[in-house]
Amino acid sequence: MRSSPPKRLLNKEFFTEGLQLQLDRQSLDRPYGLHWHEFYELTLVLSGRGSNTVNGQTRELQAGDAFLLTPADFHAIAPAKGQTLELYNLIFSQALLNDELVGLLFAEDSGPYARFADAAAQANMIFRCQNLAAEIEGKAPGHALAAQGELNDILIAWHRQRRPELRVARSRGPRLAHHEHPGIQKALIHIQHHFRQPLSLQDAARQAHLSPNYFSELFHKATGSSFQHYLQQQRLRFAQALLQSSNLPVTELSYVAGFNTLTHFERVFRREFGMTPSQARQHER
Length: 285
Description:
Elements: E1 7-9, H1 11-14, E2 21-28, E3 32-37, E4 40-47, E5 50-54, E6 57-61, E7 65-69, E8 74-79, E9 85-92, H2 99-106, E10 113-115, H3 119-138, H4 143-160, H5 182-194, H6 201-208, H7 212-223, H8 227-245, H9 250-256, H10 262-273, H11 277-284
Parallel strand pairs: 1-3
Antiparallel strand pairs: 2-9, 3-8, 4-7, 4-9, 5-6, 5-8, 7-10
């Protein structure tokens, strides 16, 4: 039986033309299958136990856990047997992230998880979420500006609660490089979050506010790799994780990972891993 592709949740399905942000309180009593989003998602566990699988890696969940996902991540979440996961689920578009906040959250690969371990920290995070919900629902004058401020506070609070023991790689691709030029760092983060989409050297250079030739030179110094090779590595590692964590047919998987043709995907996959995608799936299982 052919498996359906993991569902992709689109901005237009959740956001109006106004504020590109939504906060819901949810009760999850059954698994929510493999999917990803065009938007960012922050989830806070209020009560219950369960598990979350991000990019093929599973972690147990409990009250106080919070995870932040990007448009490049795919995940599935499920309550433990006999449990209900009570959650705050916050989704927002990239347009609400300024460069400084993106750099704070993603310049280092500390993984998607944080834990609000004590009652005071959890209560503070819940209070922030309640304030955000009130701004969104109340639509008082200045509510969009106030909601943006609440979102920033929530994301910073999440970042401050990240712990080394909670680190799970966001992807198995090349680590995010660092470079003294802020434009290169911005382009690297953009690639990290959008590598499954069509991306050109010109697109990345535009993110860095540099000419394509100068960007290419600085990019190679920062990563030790050409832009195209770096992008290909991101896609290959994503495909490898998806092979291990889903039954998606290889043909469909290649397109999901950002490759234009199956032939090209199989050729570069074999060159990178020494086996075909189908062989890699059998080897892992």
